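Board notes (copied after class):
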Amino acid sequence: MLAESRSNLLPVLLALLSACAVVACRKDKTETAPPTALADPTQVHGRANEARQSLKALDPAFAGLSQKLSALHREFDPLPPGLPNFGETRSRFYALSVALGALTAKPSWLSGRIESAVEARDLAELSAISREIMETQTQLQQADVRAAELLLQVQPFKKAAAEKAEELQAFGKTKCE
C-alpha cells in the first residue's frame, strides 16, 4: 500500500520539478537590478569612518576571547577524552573554538566590504555592514559567556582526572591502560 502510493507520487514530483526547471530557465525577460544612485562622497566617507571605528572597537573583545580560548585549551587539552560524561562538554568546547576561529576572519572581511562600499559610494551597503558589526559584537558577547560557562564546567572533570591519576599512582601505574 505504501509502496503503491509512493510510485503514484513519483510522476507528480517529476512533473513539478520539470515545470520549475522550465520556469527557472526562461530567458525571454531579463531582470536587472534597479540602478542605485551614487551617494554624496562626504557622507559615504563619514559612514565608512564610523563603520571602521566600530570595527576597530571589536579588537579588545577579540583579544580577550583569544586569551580565554587559550586558557580553555590549557584546561581541556590535558584531560583524557574517556572521562565519564565528558564528551558533551568537550564537544561544546571544540564547537566554541571552531566558531571563534571562523569569527576571527570577520573583521578583515568586513573591512574589505567597507572599502568596496566606499568605492561604490553605496550607503545601503555601509548600513548593512554596520548592522553586521553590531551582530558580531553580540556574537562576541555570547562567546564570552560560553567561554566562562565552559571554564566552570571543566572543573569537575579536572578534579575527576586528578583523582584518577592519584588512583593509578596508588596501583603503581603511570597511565590508563
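Comment from the instructor: Residues 123-170 form the longest helix (48 residues). The two ends are 55 Å apart (CA to CA).
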